[in-house]
Amino acid sequence: MRVAGLLLAAGAGRRFGTPKALVPLDGKLFVDRAAELLRAAGCEPVVVVLGAKADEVRTQASLDGVTVVDNPNWETGMGSSLRTGLHAVGIADAVLVLPVDTPGVTVEALHRLMALAEPKALARAVYDGEIGHPVLIGSDHFAGVMASAAGDQGARDYLKANTVRHVECADVADGADIDQPGDLRRRTGEA
H helices of 30-131, where? Predict the structure, then answer.
């Protein structure tokens, strides 16, 4: 099975105060950490969708071994980034979708979802029963996801309307989103 990785890194990070792609953690930008994670898990290709401050992200990030695409409509929300990324993936049996602001996700969590990869698959990580990321979308669902992805909902409506396998990952990863600087300080123990 060919599983692509799709990293959504286009947002402006309004609550954070800067695009989260540019946020450093342990000496590495969020965007590089997440792209490297998808590559380490064996995703091929890895597509990174940029938007806000895309030129600055390209200058500061290494983004080695990944395909970088710009979402010209990034201000409309995650839905347009998801559509842009799915178009750029090309031929794959499934895609693993990861937002840039989940630095606690691990290769082990990605592998749990990748083990379910097939064209008909729909699965998402859950953490102690709470839904989170990444999300695995089989190629049979690409068109439906693209048709329903709007605003900041991404694939949410499509996933609600279909049967999705939940994969518990709390024992191997932390799925918390980093939405504000305080979230990052708590994660690094500086709160």
Answer: 30-41, 54-60, 78-89, 107-114
Predicted TM-score (pTM) of the model is: 0.95
Query: Rounded distance, CA 79 to CA 169, Å?
Result: 25
Range 46-66 average pLDDT: 96
Rounded to an integer, what distance in angstroms lies between the CA atom of residue 5 and that of residue 3? 7
Contact 62, 21 (CB under 8 A): no
**Cα–Cα distances in angstroms (integers) from residue 157 to residues 79, 80, 127, 130, 160, in the given order:** 11, 14, 20, 17, 5
Look up tokens 């609600």; give the residue.
160
Counting beta carbons within 10 angstroms of the beta carbon of residue 191, is it exposed (0 to 12), middle (13 to 18) or buried (19 or more)? exposed
Two structure tokens written together for 101: 């602001």
138 Cβ contact partners less than 8 Å away, ≥ 6 residues apart: 93, 94, 117, 118, 119, 120, 121, 122
